[in-house]
Every structure is written in structure tokens, then in C-alpha cells.
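Supplementary Note 2. Why include the ligand at all?

Several targets in our set were suspected to adopt different conformations when bound, so apo predictions alone were not considered sufficient. For every target with a known small-molecule partner we therefore ran a joint prediction. The input for S-adenosyl-L-homocysteine is given below.
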Amino acid sequence: MTDFRAEKSKLIEALQEGGISDESVLSAIADTPRELFIPETFKNHAYENSALPIDRGQTISQPLVVAKMTEALEVHNRHKVLEIGTGSGYQAYILSKLCRRLFTIERHRLLMQQAEKRFQSLRAYNITTMRGDGGRGWPEQAPFERIMVTAAAEDIPPVLIDQLTVGGIMIVPIGAVEDHQDLLKVTKTESGIDVEDMGPVRFVPLVSGLPTGG
Ligand code: SAH
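The joint prediction is reproduced in C-alpha cell form.
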């Protein structure tokens, strides 16, 4: 098996240069074998700071974006966290190292099955998965202290705000077209929400309903 140690420490340096300073986030990323989350063909690129294609036309996010979103989520080890858009499972696995329980939803059956295998082999027993439409959240498990959406919604989904605790944080890319998306940090307050714009990003769209045939 290839030893990615040198590539990995270069990536961690790149994340620090990119403005990531939270040690718990940096060590969660350093402790995660990204090569296990990507298709065989791209394994040599596992520690480049770039997004990569996965099955079903989806992508595993760029490590710097994963790090920024994770840092902005301010995850604590007592938190119950929901992720929408499991994809490869990479972001979910990183979050699971920082929180108490991680729930994650994916609409593609194949991606969900692949991610579940990875979680099992990595013994990530605090992750619970569901194949479904994440736009509806996970009402049976709500409320969540933190929610991360890893596909771009057109507007902040009110259903997800409902499933957040007061004081809870949601990170969500918003924008109808792919080259006009902004990452928002939404904090639920007693009276409504506070929204902070974290700048432009590029995500695959949040698609409602389920694909036919998995
Ligand atoms: N977090 C992923 C990156 C995901 S890409 C990772 O770390 O690899 C976005 C994912 O969101 C895709 O897998 C896509 O299928 C999924 N997705 C899009 N719309 C969805 C929806 N409504 N419900 C659940 N998953 C959705």
C-alpha cells in the first residue's frame, strides 16, 4: 500500500496557509485516509487540494473547503450533527470524529452503500446513514445542534432551520446556478436566524426526490 505520509503533511500545510487554524479540525483531517474515499483511478491525487469526481457524476469536495466548512460549524463532542449529501462519506467521517453522533443522508443508493462500507471498515460507529431526500431533513432525529449541507440549495431550506436547536449552526451553499453560489453560515436565534456570507463556492446542486433505479 502506498504511504501517503509526505503528501498528507503537505496538504495540512496547505490548509494552514489557506487560513485553517483549528487544531481539532486539522487533526481530524490528518487522521482521515482520503485515499479510501475516492475511486481507484484518482488515488494518486488523494492528497492534492482539489475536488475529485466520484460515482454518479458527483464530487468529493476540495480539502480546503471541507476544512473551512468544518471549522465554521464549530462542532463539539457533545453535538448531534446532520450532514446532507453523503457523497463519498469523507466529510461525514471527519465530522464524526468531532461530534457525538453524525447522521448523514444521500439520495444515490450506490454512493450510500459505498460510504457505509467505508464507515464500517474505519469503525466509525457513531455514524447513522439514510438513503433519502435530504431536503426534508431527518425529522425523527431532530433537533440537531449542527447541520451541514454539502450540495447547493436555491434558498435556505426552512425545514432544516426547523430541525436546528436554538443557538444551532447550519453551513449551507446557496445559489441556483453553479457559478453563483455563496457559502452561508446560518445561526438560529430565539427570534429567527443570523446569516453570515462566507464567500463564493461551487457545489453540485441539491436535487429533490430520489433517482430512479438507485
Ligand atoms: N459530502 C460529500 C460531497 C458530496 S457532493 C463528500 O464528502 O464526499 C453532494 C452530494 O449530495 C452528492 O452525492 C449528491 O448525490 C447528494 N445530494 C444532492 N441532493 C441531495 C438530496 N436532496 N438529498 C440527499 N443527497 C443529495
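The mean pLDDT is 96. The domain at 5-201 is CATH 3.40.50.150 (Rossmann fold). Comparable summaries for the other entries are listed in the accompanying table.
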